[in-house]
Specification:
mainly alpha, 338 residues, globular
C-alpha cells in the first residue's frame, strides 16, 4: 500500500489509471542501461551508469507487475477492456519486451533469475503476437485503426534473442527473430501508407507514435548482432533505417507541443536507446571515426531523453501526490498516469 500512500490515490483510482503502456518506461530505462553496459565494454568506461539504470528499471517492473496483478484480481474488466481496444491492445507486448530486456540485464548476476524472467515473457510474447496477427486478419480494419503501435508485437519477437542466445536457446530465438523481420517488412509499408495518406502531421499525438518506427529496425539489428554468421550488411541496413526514421521524427518535433507531462513521452525513450545500442554495435563491427561519433551522439541523445522524461515523471508524481494529500483538486494538471 506504500504506492497509494505516496501518490495520494486510492487503490481503485490507481488501478483505473493503470495501462500496459506504462511498461514503456521500463523498456526505455532498461534499454539505456543495456546501451551503457555495451558502451562500457567497448570503451572501458565505468559500468555504474548502465547497472544503475537496469536496477531502477527492474524495480519499476516489479511494481508494475504487482499493480497489474491487483488489476487482474480486483478489476479484471479493466484489463479486458484494454485488450478489446483497437489501439491499446498493441501495448500488451511492452510487458514481454521489458521482460526480455531485463532477462539479459540480470544475466550477469544470476542465470536462474534470467531464466525465471525470460521463459514466461517469451511464451506470453508468442501468444500476444499470434493473437494480434489473428485479430488483424479476422477483424475488419479501417484506416484509422492502422498505427505504428502495430510494430510493438513485432519488436517483441526480436528481443528474446538478447538473453536467449547466451542462455542456450539460440535456435528458438533465431526463429522468433526471423519472424520479426518478415513482419516488419510486411507491415511497415502498410503503416507508412496510412501515415502518408491520413496526413498525421496535423495530429499532435502522432510524433510519439512515429518514434516506434525507429525501434523495430534498431532492435532487429541488435538481435542480428547475436548471430555472427548473419550478413553484416543486413544489420547495417536496419541500423541506418532506424537512423533515418529518427531523423524524420526529430524533424516533426514542431508538431508535438509539450505543454505538460504525458505518458506518451515514454514512447521516445526506448527507440532512442535501441538506436544507440544498434549504432554502438555498428561501431564495434567497423571501428572507424564516423561510426564512433554517431554512436556517441546517439548514446548522448538517448541519455538526455531518458533523463528528461524520467525527471519530468518524478516531478509530476511528487506534485500530484502533494496535491492529493492536501485535499485540493488539480485543474488541467499533468499526471504521471495520464
Amino acid at each position: 500500500m506504500w504506492i497509494t500512500a505516496f501518490t495520494g490515490l486510492s487503490m481503485v483510482s490507481l488501478l483505473e489509471k493503470m495501462r500496459f503502456d506504462l511498461y514503456a518506461s521500463v523498456m526505455g530505462i532498461t534499454g539505456l542501461g543495456l546501451a551503457w553496459r555495451f558502451a562500457a565494454q567497448c570503451f572501458q568506461w565505468p559500468q555504474v551508469i548502465g547497472e544503475t539504470c537496469i536496477f531502477i528499471a527492474l524495480s519499476i517492473f516489479i511494481m508494475l507487475n504487482a499493480l497489474n496483478l491487483a488489476r487482474l484480481l480486483m478489476a479484471p474488466q479493466l484489463i479486458r477492456s484494454e485488450w478489446m481496444d483497437h489501439d491499446r491492445f498493441n501495448f500488451f507486448p511492452t510487458f514481454t519486451i521489458s521482460g526480455s530486456l531485463l532477462s539479459i540485464g540480470v544475466l550477469p548476476y544470476s542465470n536462474f533469475a534470467a531464466l525465471v524472467i525470460w521463459w514466461p515473457t517469451v511464451l506470453l510474447q508468442v501468444l500476444f503476437i499470434t493473437l494480434a496477427v489473428r485479430r488483424w486478419l479476422t477483424t475488419k480494419i479501417i484506416l484509422q485503426n492502422v498505427s505504428p503501435a502495430w510494430l510493438i508485437p513485432m519488436v517483441g519477437n526480436a528481443s528474446p534473442c538478447f538473453a536467449g542466445v547466451p542462455l542456450g536457446y539460440g535456435t528458438f530465438s533465431y526463429a522468433l527473430l526471423m519472424s520479426a523481420i518478415v513482419c516488419w517488412m510486411l507491415f511497415t509499408p502498410i503503416i507508412l501508407g496510412k501515415l502518408i495518406i491520413s496526413k498525421p502531421e496535423t495530429e499532435p499525438h502522432i510524433v510519439p507514435s512515429i518514434a516506434i518506427l525507429i525501434s523495430a529496425p534498431a532492435v532487429i539489428s541488435v538481435g542480428l548482432y547475436n548471430y555472427p554468421d548473419t550478413a553484416n550488411v543486413l544489420m547495417q541496413l536496419l541500423s541506418y533505417a532506424a537512423l533515418f526514421f529518427a531523423a524524420v521524427t526529430i524533424s516533426m518535433f514542431r508538431h508535438f507541443r509539450i505543454k505538460q507531462f504525458s505518458r506518451a513521452l515514454w514512447a521516445f525513450t526506448f527507440p532512442a536507446a535501441a538506436l544507440s545500442s544498434s549504432l554502438l554495435r555498428i561501431y564495434h563491427q567497423t571501428p572507424d571515426p564516423y561510426n564512433l561519433y554517431q554512436a556517441w551522439i546517439a548514446l548522448g541523445l538517448a541519455t538526455t531523453i531518458v533523463v528528461l522524461v524520467s525527471v519530468s515523471a518524478v516531478k509530476c508524481l511528487v506534485m500530484d501526490s502533494a496535491i492529493s494529500l492536501s485535499g485540493k483538486k488539480s485543474l488541467n494538471r499533468s499526471s504521471i498516469l495520464r
